[in-house]
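Extended Data, panel c. Modelled sequence:
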Amino acid sequence: MLKDLCKEIGERMNKTVDALQNDLKIIRTGRASPALVERLQVEYYGTMSPLNQMASISVPEPRLLTIRPWDASALPAIEKAILKSDLGLTPQNDGKLIRLAIPRLTEERRRELVKMVQRRLEESKIALRNIRRDAISDLREFEKEKLITEDDLHQGREQVQELVEKFSDKVEELGQRKEQEIMKV
């Protein structure tokens, strides 16, 4: 019973860390990366689609992204989605492809990005704490139903807390790496 619960919450916490990693990939660091825009949602024929399913994204130069849609009629929609996003980039449309010049980051913009990273880290930590709360609630429920003993309840709480600490450390490590990447000139 405890092993199953620990395995389940470990998987949920792992998904939380994976989601954080994907969020941090989007935050730009001064050099071009397809990850900046590939998950950008574009309204195309009335449905929202990720950009990487509508176009090829390439990096011809260290500070330039090019987006070549498979359907040229999607160019205005892609351009609109880029402008609406919080990327702070201005697309240049030449009728066949969109160029995104990645400007050098100013010190002020770097600090804003670090604050954004801190917000994402805090959101992930909150998600981990919510998972812990749910797991402890489940453990209490198991004890009420006489599925586990009081000792098992305390042991389960300790195991859950260890998992939370382990995944919180991973979140912190990811955040520190991203901050160093952003602040590196």
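The mean pLDDT is 87. This feature is highlighted in the accompanying rendering.
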